[in-house]
């Protein structure tokens, strides 16, 4: 089986690649293995071959599956190759036209029956907290027993952040002082259930900056994990529902605090391009989507900042830096806090290995990348690691732990919140 006729990777876009190799040093899989077919250039060549009728063999699929979708190659490419569009089309083709082995299928089914559903994640919180408090979690990690049974399950266990009491965001939070607008807020799935403090901080910061915040409780998943895994019909279903929800909320902008979700929501116009009842609405929705740091810099901040004496290593989440081009805004916001010293991380363009569910499906390379990132983070000598994606926080924290190290971590918006409120930073997620 090769590609079918439903939106295969376009010949014109494939032809944009001039095989110069400028992207190779930033491609994490090429850096790890030095294999041409595990580089952007090699994958583009494979896409072209399959488009021309070569079979979608298991080894070809393996090269596509090994791609983290980090999009560092898009940033690095001087010819403007749209690898993001090409790999999205390819993943959807793989999902439709390739039968994975039973074990892989079962793992993917389990992941997609759990992560995009906040209620199911919420049901997990109790048992997971019990597991973490009982000391069993520490024992399992030390003994590496789970690692021997299933590396994916071990990765899932070690990535789960320490769970504290859930802090829920009300459906409406009123602006403090003069109202500058009304914004919708995406609650996310993992963010909502595993990092509720980040959502609470986001709502407080937006309100402090003069915005009414609407966070509809009925909102579901944005479809990011599904879209980035080629599950097109599922991603479209989630996208339509989210568009409906925020249209009803009547907001000026939809603010997102998770890089992976934001990048996927900005792709709704392409995702729903063939749907006559949603294509125009999707384009209008995309115009309103903003990452929280992008939004704050765009509207300008007014809430006074209190000093925070802390050194911060800022980690660029790939889906914020490479996919959305949001690099300067979080740095600008952090630098504006008196007393805060910002430090850059070496090889910042290279992915930490989280990449949505990549670290669950491909735990070994993900761990290698995570360990390299953790070393570079430690080398900054900073006291606090800051990033804007829950996946990156979990990935780097777990890598630090594997190296016997710990470091306080926070989302960008938690640092802003602490500064605005004149409080110390949230308890370290060590
Ligand atoms: S993707 Fe871009 S940078 Fe990489 S080989 Fe092709 S043209 Fe060169
Ligand atoms: S998306 Fe990332 S892993 Fe995939 S080819 Fe591009 S740089 Fe390599």
From TrEMBL:
Cofactor(s) named in the record: [4Fe-4S] cluster
One example GO MF annotation: 4 iron, 4 sulfur cluster binding
Domain 4Fe-4S ferredoxin-type, chain residue ranges per copy: 7-37, 57-81
Keywords: 4Fe-4S, Electron transport, Iron, Iron-sulfur, Metal-binding, Repeat, Transport
Record's keyword annotation contains Cell inner membrane: no
EC number from the UniProt entry: 1.1.99.14
Database matches in InterPro entries: 4Fe4S_Fe-S-bd, 4Fe4S_Fe_S_CS, Cys_rich_dom, Glc_ox_4Fe-4S, Helical_ferredxn
Cofactor binding, per record: Binds 2 [4Fe-4S] clusters.
UniProt-listed Pfam families: CCG (PF02754), Fer4_8 (PF13183)
The reaction(s) this protein catalyses: glycolate + A = glyoxylate + AH2; (R)-lactate + A = pyruvate + AH2
Coiled-coil regions, chain positions: none
Presence of the UniProt keyword Transport in the record: yes
Function: Component of a complex that catalyzes the oxidation of glycolate to glyoxylate.
Protein name per its UniProtKB record: Glycolate oxidase iron-sulfur subunit
Lineage: Bacteria, Bacillati, Actinomycetota, Actinomycetes, Propionibacteriales
């Amino acid at each position: 089986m090769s590609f079918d006729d439903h939106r295969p990777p376009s010949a014109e876009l494939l032809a944009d690649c001039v095989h110069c190799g400028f992207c190779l040093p930033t491609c994490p899989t090429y850096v790890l293995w030095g294999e041409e077919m595990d580089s952007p250039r090699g994958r583009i060549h494979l896409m072209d071959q399959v488009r021309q009728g070569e079979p979608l063999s298991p080894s070809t699929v393996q090269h596509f599956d090994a791609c983290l979708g980090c999009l560092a190659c898009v940033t690095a490419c001087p010819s403007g190759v749209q690898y993001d569009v090409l790999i999205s089309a390819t993943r959807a083709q793989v999902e439709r036209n390739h039968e994975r082995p039973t074990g892989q299928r079962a793992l993917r089914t389990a992941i997609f029956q759990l992560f995009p559903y906040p209620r199911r994640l919420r049901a997990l919180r109790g048992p997971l907290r019990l597991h973490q408090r009982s000391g069993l979690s520490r024992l399992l990690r030390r003994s590496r027993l789970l690692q021997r049974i299933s590396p994916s399950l071990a990765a899932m266990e070690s990535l789960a952040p320490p769970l504290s009491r859930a802090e829920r965001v009300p459906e409406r939070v009123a602006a403090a002082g003069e109202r500058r607008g009304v914004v919708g807020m995406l609650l996310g799935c993992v963010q909502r259930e595993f990092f509720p403090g980040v959502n609470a901080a986001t709502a407080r910061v937006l309100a402090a900056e003069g915005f009414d915040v609407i966070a509809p409780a009925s909102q579901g998943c944005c479809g990011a994990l599904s879209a980035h895994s080629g599950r097109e019909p599922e991603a479209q279903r989630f996208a339509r529902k989210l568009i409906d929800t925020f249209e009803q909320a009547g907001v000026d902008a939809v603010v997102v605090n998770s890089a992976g979700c934001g990048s996927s929501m900005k792709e709704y116009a392409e995702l729903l391009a063939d749907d006559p009842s949603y294509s125009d609405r999707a384009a209008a929705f995309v115009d309103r989507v903003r990452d929280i740091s992008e939004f704050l810099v765009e509207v300008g901040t007014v809430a006074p900042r209190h000093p925070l004496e802390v050194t911060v290593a800022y980690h660029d989440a790939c889906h914020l830096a490479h996919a959305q081009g949001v690099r300067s805004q979080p740095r600008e916001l952090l630098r504006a806090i008196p007393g805060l010293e910002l430090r850059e991380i070496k090889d910042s363009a290279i992915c930490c290995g989280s990449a949505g569910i990549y670290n669950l499906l491909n735990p070994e390379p993900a761990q290698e990348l995570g360990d390299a990132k953790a070393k570079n983070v430690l080398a900054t000598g900073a006291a606090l690691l800051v990033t804007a994606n829950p996946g990156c926080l979990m990935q780097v924290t777990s890598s630090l732990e594997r190296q016997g190290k710990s470091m306080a971590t926070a989302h960008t918006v938690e640092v802003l919140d602490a500064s605005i409120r004149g409080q110390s930073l949230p308890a370290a997620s060590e």
